[in-house]
User: Fold this.
Amino acid sequence: MTIGEALKQTRKSMKLSQTEMAGDVLSTSYYSKIERGLNDIQTQDLIDLLKQHGLQASIFLERIENEDSENDLAHKNLIWQKQLEDAYYHQQIERLEDLKIEIGKYKNQSQNIFNLYALVVFSIASLKKQIDQISENIKRQVRQIVFDSDEWSESTLQIFAMTMMIYAPEDMDFLINSIFRTYRHNVSNLSGQLQEIMSAIAINYLANVYVQRRKIDLNLIYDFISKLPEIPRNAFAKIVANYYHYCFDGKNEEADQIIEFMKSNGMSHLIKNFIVENCHL
Assistant:
């Protein structure tokens, strides 16, 4: 039994509609896709979703875990995702190396596990500045996953966000256009996790275009960032988007002020990994 199937079973036992089940945590359309196995759900969203109906996430997951070994692997996948996010954000390469070994044991058992394994591989390479050392087989499989995607699920978007550097400019432009046209409406109703993934893609794309000194229309990206709710979770994306906007407009002084602001507020490690400094086109 998948998490989506378990949620559907729980919802029906409580005689709730999908809208009532989703509550204030997720949009109805997004929740509906979770039940159908088309979207993933982030751990915190699952906890919040169950909590609003008086349910304990630990008991819910335990019930799924006890179904069979396949569901046990799905539960591990949720835990690995959170560990990967934390380790990458805090630049814990040794922890990522451990995750690579642990997840690697199961990478051929499901597409989701392979996707996560690929994310770990790219996370390590990114922090070590060794993208060129990733095997061509892994790169090929990752590109295949992205191009074969029928719709942009969270897992596919996570893969793309972490591996954008392996695509040719024309392929990246095509994919970016498809992604942001898909999610440009009702941005504030997207799950918190999806907003974060989309923000990461936007920032990576702006950096890529800047480094390549390409002159293209970026309004789709800026429009998405501007529609993100003005809450702490989205602050970094909004700040960095403004930075690159100043860069492309030749407003170097304003761009430098943003860098200084970030450095003076303890964000130097984020600048190192996510921002191209010295904004002088």
